[in-house]
């Protein structure tokens, strides 16, 4: 069975199992399980050098292949379900659907991009792959990570290959407590990420961390990179994760933290952050790029502080 047919069956099953026709649902699940088994076996048989594999039984699918890596004592699933670390998948020689052909298409689409996709689409893995490609620190790992993929062919390389400092952000914070509590968690999250960024690139201690205002910390980071004549890429994974919770659980907090006041770019922390992000392209950096992913465009539209991005959600390249 082709992979596309397999995925369509899963989508049909997800819609079908919401139906009250329980008996037919059970039959459908059994048929799908058989298809998964056949698909797994066929895909592994098509791949060379995987003869040394095991067949453990799992709760969901029997006969999922596991792979020996390293000295043979470590076993990893051949299909990395739920895994979003591109480098780990490649080093473990797990199954990876090659999307590296998107790299030049994304570059041509603009320097500041935004797109939304449903959960489990693969947004985190895509950003992880882009981070590995652009990260100046991973220049020596390029062959290990991309050999055999489309972008691994030298004729497909782009000028941005391993040329950027990469700042990866996510807004996965708790939304309980007061609005001030949530604001402080957001600042702590961003500050912690920037501290990790500085250590990763050998710049620890060169930026003073403002514990109460991570946007000030971010501005100081930009100033440092301008002095170093560096290029910066900001990748934000599911920017609206906590905002979506607030919409349904506490609309009043949502207005304070995300929406703010119309015409005032500093009236909420999210508006303030996107305002700083928008200004990054005019700070003297050698180059600045950003890619923001989310589930819905609602929070970004309400924050309205980042109207310079190109929304590629409906583009056929994705």
UniProtKB/TrEMBL annotation:
InterPro entries, A to Z: AAA-ATPase-like_dom, P-loop_NTPase
Protein name in UniProt: Predicted protein
Pfam families, alphabetized: AAA-ATPase_like (PF09820)
Coiled-coil segments on the chain, per record: none
Origin species: Naegleria gruberi (Amoeba)
Domain AAA-ATPase-like: residue ranges: 80-302
């Amino acid at each position: 069975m082709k992979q596309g047919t397999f995925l369509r069956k899963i989508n049909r099953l997800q819609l079908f199992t919401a139906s009250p026709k329980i008996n037919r649902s059970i039959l459908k699940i059994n048929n799908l399980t058989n298809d998964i088994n056949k698909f797994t076996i066929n895909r592994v048989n098509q791949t060379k050098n995987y003869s040394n594999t095991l067949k453990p039984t799992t709760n969901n699918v029997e006969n999922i292949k596991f792979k020996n890596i390293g000295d043979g004592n470590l076993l990893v699933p051949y299909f990395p379900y739920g895994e979003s670390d591109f480098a780990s998948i490649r080093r473990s020689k797990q199954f990876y659907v090659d999307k590296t052909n998107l790299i030049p298409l994304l570059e041509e689409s603009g320097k500041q991009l935004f797109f939304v996709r449903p959960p489990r689409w693969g947004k985190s893995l895509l950003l992880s792959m882009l981070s590995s490609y652009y990260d100046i620190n991973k220049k020596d790992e390029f062959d290990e990570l991309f050999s055999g993929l489309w972008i691994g062919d030298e004729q497909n390389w782009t000028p941005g290959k391993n040329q950027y400092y990469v700042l990866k952000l996510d807004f996965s914070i708790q939304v309980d407590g007061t609005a001030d509590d949530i604001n402080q968690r957001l600042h702590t999250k961003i500050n912690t990420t920037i501290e990790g960024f500085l250590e990763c690139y050998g710049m620890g201690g060169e930026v003073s961390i403002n514990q109460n205002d991570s946007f000030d910390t971010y501005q100081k980071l930009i100033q440092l990179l301008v002095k170093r004549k560096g290029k910066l890429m900001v990748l934000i994974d599911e920017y609206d994760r906590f905002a979506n919770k607030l919409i349904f659980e506490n609309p009043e907090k949502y207005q304070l933290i995300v929406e703010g006041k119309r015409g005032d770019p500093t009236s909420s922390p999210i508006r303030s952050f996107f305002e700083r992000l928008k200004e990054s392209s005019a700070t003297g950096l050698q180059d600045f790029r950003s890619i923001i992913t989310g589930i819905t465009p609602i929070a970004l539209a309400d924050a309205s502080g980042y109207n310079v991005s190109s929304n590629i959600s409906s583009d056929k390249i994705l």
